[in-house]
Amino acid sequence: QVQLVESGGGLVQAGGSLRLSCAASGRTFSNYAMAWFRQAPGKDREFVAAIISWSGGATYYADSVKGRFTISRDNAKNTVYLQMNSLKPEDTAAYYCAAGRLATRTSGQYDYWGQGTQVTVAS
Known about the structure:
By secondary structure, the chain is mostly beta strands. It contains no helices and eleven strands. The strands form two sheets. Strands 2, 4, 5, 6, 9, 10 and 11 form a seven-stranded mixed sheet that branches. Strands 1-3-8-7 form a four-stranded antiparallel sheet, with no helix packed on it. It is globular.
């Protein structure tokens, strides 16, 4: 089992920044690819970003966040981050981190999920 706990969400003005963190415990963090997904009210959960298992490894982004968001991980701290810059009202959602064997865009490929943290971007 892997337990994931997100933090760092909140209310921010459009154009602002937030950094989300996801702390992992349980099985060896460095064995897992990590990802961020988000879900807005009334919408399906959507892929945001993913990173392969080792720090500094390959990253993948949704087109809607490319150039604004950066995913990173620190395997020594068992933590994955999502730096979000130039935030827009349409980024408003609950953000979830997930752990899985492969860094994919498909939520069903991830085995473990956090409880989510709310990000609200005011216009």
